[in-house]
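Q: Joint fold for the lines below.
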Amino acid sequence: MVFEKFAGVMLPAIEDQLRGVILSSVSEENCRELAKMLCYHLGWEGDRAGPEAQGKRIRPLLVLLCSAASGSDWQQALPAAAAVELMHNFSLIHDDIQDQSLERRGRPTLWTKWGIAQAINAGDLMFTLANNSLFALKGGKNEAVIIRAIEILHQTSISLTKGQFLDLAYEKEKTIPLESYWPMIAGKTAALLAASCELGGVVAGIEPEKKKAFREFGYSLGLAFQVQDDWLGIWGDVSSTGKSNESDLVTGKKSLPVLYALNMHKAFSERWIKGNIEPIEVVDLARLLAFEGAETYTRETVDRLTREALQALERTDCNGEGMVALRELTSMLLTRVK
Amino acid sequence: MVFEKFAGVMLPAIEDQLRGVILSSVSEENCRELAKMLCYHLGWEGDRAGPEAQGKRIRPLLVLLCSAASGSDWQQALPAAAAVELMHNFSLIHDDIQDQSLERRGRPTLWTKWGIAQAINAGDLMFTLANNSLFALKGGKNEAVIIRAIEILHQTSISLTKGQFLDLAYEKEKTIPLESYWPMIAGKTAALLAASCELGGVVAGIEPEKKKAFREFGYSLGLAFQVQDDWLGIWGDVSSTGKSNESDLVTGKKSLPVLYALNMHKAFSERWIKGNIEPIEVVDLARLLAFEGAETYTRETVDRLTREALQALERTDCNGEGMVALRELTSMLLTRVK
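A: Joint structure:
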């Protein structure tokens, strides 16, 4: 696959760039433990460090692939690739504290190892480094490009915090309207994928309509990615891994299929309102959800959003191997089973 | 006083600018509660809103006064003034969670009202808005100025998180060397005051040596300000307010006078190592600290740093009423009793 050819050279370059941002900014002897926290979270240090602990690096790959598809040298976009990955990881560090999650990518979360106070602060530093890493564009790009890139990243982090605010607020509600789902995942997921694709175009210096099309591609892809995640959270785990206790039904997440069924006010909704769902109920309730139409609705939504993403990608009017890789990545993300 | 004349017109302009940044970025109906959190923390809304709840706005005043002293129209520096105040308040929101502080400026802290999860997120948003508010410079300033301003703010927030890391790490130690104090307060306090003064000069477009002198002024002022705060935390409260339970001796803060005495290994140090200090001991221990030379050392340090700040200010080679106001502000900050 063309995607794998690109990923094979891009992924090591992304790790190098990330490592450079962190080690050049946190090099003091007395801050060694602080650097260690960031390196642990990024999957480079500590128990079970390695590719599994690093995550898929989807966002920086999108930056680089969109830059390559725009006909530019993708290596020039590495500072922007590092920026979006650091932004994503900052939000994960804080999310894990907010959700009291004990594990991330199969390892203890940062706050369980270093405490809440130091983990909040490490997240703040990761956030700053995300913004700051764009300054490495200074070597090759003009000031207007740098300012535009910073502006995109700022707008994205405003969207991220709004999406997170809604997510936390929804947790307190028994049920919410189906349409309330979209502004939440637009902020939490789609904003950063949209920014990643747009940044690839911005750094490549393409025309405004093309940048807009890349942005729309990332946005629809982000929505589709999240809805697919919601599908996996209910029907993926049970069938492929059998881990009922990790089902979104047990954690009480207001995912798209759940909201669909809650707004149908049928048997699933009646059960949900009664209180927490136990792991033993998960298989039956996943079937009930499907019976009430939530699985079909969810799959159709993924399909529609994927079509919209691919249509936007074609509107960029780009050609070549970068485009092939982006189409392949889209299809991989949306047919994944974990 | 000249300072009061400036503050009388600058303070309302700062509030307007801050309000504009927040309301223009968080205007959606579904994020009303999020905007309310920020407005509460900034002292505009909720119980006991008002000037007392807003804080002194020292940092934005420094930006505007340094800009005025540089011979520029201070109103053009308002976006930078808002940026440093938002940065300061972001760090306070997260500090209060990290220190589990229940009160701030006489009111319940953000996290006690909205919970830790929402407070972390509101702090993240305040952080982003700090960076983003610099874009309002775009109307009147060229791109190089904006990039330089953003870069200063990023470097400052890296310093802030390093200082905070050290502060949190020191809490776990019984004692630390006296010299470890300086990198902590350099990051936690001096970095943002240095940035405030430098930003005033950057926006005014003055020469590099003058900007450097403004920065050094802010840095020394920040160190002096913090050491004075440490003095107040032990000898100020007890004599002027009698609130022994709020003494830094009770909270166990590793302030400069405490570190001085710990490194003398005399009677105070022996008592400190035995465990938490009770409010009833505070008056006697404050006397013991003074007897062991810690108060003289602390006062002399404030005096030395103040002299260094004023010398740096003169190196800016600026004249006029802005300079008079800065000298007055310096003297007010360092002779304050609360």
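Q: Anything notable?
A: The mean pLDDT of chain B is 94. Residues 208-240 of chain B form the longest helix (33 residues).
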